[in-house]
Design brief:
globular, mainly beta, 3-stranded mixed β-sheet
Length: about 220
């Protein structure tokens, strides 16, 4: 018998079901975010200029899902949230986005390559997650991508690919003058499995070939 023990981290998909307690009274949104980071090791990503960290939050909940708490916080702050790759992405609500952004669109295009070899990467996910709904594309055989009709202004870019470190840029600036051309270099990640133990419980004194224990009769 071979025993394999591997210590793995919690699946990011269960983050929204995490039970937490909160108690805020007229607390700044920035302080709420910092509290959740510190007490529950929750990772947040947002563009500072796209949401108001001065919004005041009053909320008291006990043993509630993180998703329920975030819904309540975001409703008071007039923002929205989304979970991607174990991170909580904060962005303006759809209503606020419509009111604040002009109807001017631009194109984002470019190429994704391996940082070390400079070879193109095929099938990389490129997403603008600050829009609602999110816009995205996948790189072709030459590593190229193109995303059309993205609102001008600051956008949140998320680039992910299996086996590589995620590129997370919440301050991507898109102007109306010309399309934005990017060359994105992705660094290969090292996926370590901690506490791997392999043991063999076979009785080494026993014959490997079971037929060896059977005497031949003449």
């Amino acid at each position: 018998m071979v025993l394999l023990c591997v210590n793995l981290t919690t699946n990011a998909q269960n983050l929204g079901n995490k039970k937490i307690d909160v108690s805020y009274k007229n607390t700044f949104l920035a302080e709420v975010i910092e509290d959740l980071k510190t007490r529950y090791q929750i990772s947040f990503t947002y563009a500072n200029k796209s949401i108001s960290l001065d919004s005041r939050i009053t909320l008291k909940l006990k043993n509630r899902n993180l998703s329920t708490v975030l819904d309540a916080v975001c409703k008071q702050a007039n923002i929205s949230w989304q979970e991607i790759s174990g991170q909580i992405i904060l962005k303006p609500s759809k209503k606020a986005e419509v009111n604040s952004e002009s109807k001017i669109f631009q194109t984002i295009r470019g190429k994704v390559v391996d940082k070390d070899s400079q070879l193109p990467l095929i099938g990389v996910s490129i997403r603008i997650i600050s829009t609602d709904p999110a816009k995205g594309a996948v790189t072709d055989a030459n590593g190229n991508f193109r995303i059309n009709e993205v609102n001008v202004g600051r956008q949140h870019l998320l680039v992910s690919y299996i086996g590589y470190e995620t590129i997370n840029n919440p301050e991507l600036l898109l102007s109306s003058g010309k399309e934005l051309v990017l060359t994105l270099e992705m660094k290969e990640s090292i996926n370590n499995l901690n506490d791997v133990i392999v043991s063999d419980s076979r009785d080494r004194s026993a014959p490997v070939n079971t037929m060896a224990s059977v005497s031949a009769r003449s």
